[in-house]
Specification:
Length: 93
């Protein structure tokens, strides 16, 4: 019965809907977006060469990362991309 009553009171329901729409428009909040995080700078060819050179001299990846100014993960990644076989137990020696 209530459903039928709503259809019979279309004008009242329409006014309610319009009222809600107008209120929503007046309460609209503009979104603000924070700037995207800046990606780290790419390593230069010289830095990549230096990573390989230091590793072949026997330096540890963590020490190389500090010297070159990057992360240890990046050092391992660059060594892999350069085709350098890494010694799994190099920290013990």
């Amino acid at each position: 019965m209530r459903l039928l009553g709503r259809y019979l009171n279309r004008e009242t329901e329409t006014r309610k809907i319009h009222s809600l729409i107008e209120r929503a428009k007046s309460e609209h909040i503009e979104r603000t977006y924070s700037p995207r995080a800046k990606a780290p700078a790419r390593l230069t060819a010289e830095q990549n060469r230096r990573i390989v050179e230091l590793y072949l001299e026997g330096r540890q990846p963590v020490d190389i990362a500090v010297e070159v100014g990057t992360s240890e993960w990046t050092v391992h990644h660059r060594l892999n991309r350069s085709g350098i076989k890494k010694n799994r137990y190099s920290r013990d020696s």
